[in-house]
Structure formats: C-alpha cells, structure tokens
Design goal:
- By secondary structure, the protein is mostly helical.
- About 45% of the residues lie in helices and about 5% in strands.
- It has a two-stranded parallel ribbon with strand order 1-2.
- The chain is globular.
Amino acid sequence: MLLKAGAVQSAFLGEFIGKSDTAFRAGWRSLVFSGQGAMPKAFDSEAALVEYVAVTPGAIGYVSKSTAHEKVKTLAIR
C-alpha cells in the first residue's frame, strides 16, 4: 500500500527505495503495461492506509512514526 504524493511518500521512496516518486511510478507502469503486475493501492491519508491494513489480511504499508497505528503491527525500518 502506498500513500499518494506527499512528504512521507517522498521520504520513504528516497530513503528506502532509492527512487523519486516519478521514477517509482514509471517502474510500476512498465510492469502494468507489460502484464506483469498491478499498481499498488494508493491512499490519500496515512489514517486511511492504516485502516485498510488493519482490515485486509496480508496487507502492508508505511506511515510516519507520529501516525496513530494501534490497530496494526509495526516494524521499524533501519
């Protein structure tokens, strides 16, 4: 699960994926158009992403440390 454009999205992609938002989405579009994948679901807010992950078995996502996330398990990325 992804967040739509914003500071958290940019920080996550830059620090952990090593790509800009534009480059990341271009890579996914390439997979979609070749029939090898589907775009990850994107959310307008961190709260919506947490809610989706909480009720969807197997779903994962990322949020900032300050976002309420009591309904889901968390992992620290270092």
